[in-house]
């Protein structure tokens, strides 16, 4: 399980062809909780602007929330080895409502989230799957500009247009809203690492599909 860093760069940066914006004027390292999230027009960033990404029936007897980072190798493994089977056996059969909640260890995880969300709810999980599968490639592409280019390439593979991707990655207010949303959720559920699973309100760490299946079956 990846542990959340106690401090992160204030510069959780959105990309615009190699140009950057910063949430403060200096690139210092401070506790994320102390960052004042303010939009470019001076308004405070609102987590209510963020759409919850959900698969499955709204009235499913089990709600499973996964807290994950697009730069977390354990999360990529969970998506490949657990989530696919979970979707087939429980989500598609109406037993589980699955909710994905982003966690940001770094700016690259934020950028990846912005690309995944660029296609809206209908495309989110498909793009997220591509990002998790190719995580070791785009996350190690090189400097920040190279990583941004690799993320845009993944977005294009998912059918997104260049102008659409650029607009998403330049959306400063959306980035700040995502950070505020992440802070609110992580604080409420006491998230200290990824992947973390919340199953009908009970918190669990990363696990195999076999162990997850046993927990789910006990609740049905």
TrEMBL record:
Presence of the UniProt keyword Ribosomal protein in the record: no
Record-annotated Thioredoxin domain positions: 26-220
Coiled-coil zones: none
Keywords: Disulfide bond, Oxidoreductase, Redox-active center, Signal
SUPFAM superfamilies: Thioredoxin-like
GO MF annotation: an example: oxidoreductase activity
InterPro entries named among the record's database cross-references: Thioredoxin-like_fold (IPR012336), Thioredoxin-like_sf (IPR036249), Thioredoxin_domain (IPR013766)
Highest taxon listed in the record's lineage: Bacteria
Record has Lipoprotein as a keyword: no
Family: Belongs to the thioredoxin family. DsbA subfamily.
Role summary: May be required for disulfide bond formation in some proteins.
PANTHER family (alphabetical): DISULFIDE BOND FORMATION PROTEIN D (PTHR13887:SF14), GLUTATHIONE S-TRANSFERASE KAPPA (PTHR13887)
Protein name per Swiss-Prot or TrEMBL: Thioredoxin
Native organism: Shimia aestuarii
């Amino acid at each position: 399980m990846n542990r959340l860093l106690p401090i992160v760069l204030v510069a959780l940066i959105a990309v615009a062809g190699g140009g950057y914006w910063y949430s403060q004027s200096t690139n210092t390292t401070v506790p994320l909780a102390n960052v004042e999230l303010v939009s470019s027009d001076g308004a405070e960033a609102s987590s209510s602007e963020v759409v919850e990404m959900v698969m499955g029936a709204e009235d499913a007897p089990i709600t499973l929330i996964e807290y994950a980072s697009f730069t977390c190798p354990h999360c990529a493994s969970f998506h490949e080895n657990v989530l696919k089977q979970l979707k087939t056996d429980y989500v598609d059969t109406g037993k589980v409502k699955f909710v994905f909640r982003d966690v940001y260890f770094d700016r690259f995880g934020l950028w990846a989230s912005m690309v995944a969300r660029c296609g809206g709810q209908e495309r989110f999980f498909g793009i997220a799957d591509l990002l998790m599968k190719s995580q070791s490639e785009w996350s190690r592409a090189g400097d920040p500009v190279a990583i941004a280019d690799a993320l845009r390439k993944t977005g294009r593979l998912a059918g997104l247009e260049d102008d659409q991707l650029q607009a998403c990655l330049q959306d400063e207010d959306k980035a700040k809203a995502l950070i505020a949303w992440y802070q609110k959720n992580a604080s409420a559920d006491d998230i200290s690492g990824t992947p973390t699973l919340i199953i009908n309100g009970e918190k669990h760490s990363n696990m195999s599909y076999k162990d997850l299946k046993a927990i789910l079956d006990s609740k049905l």
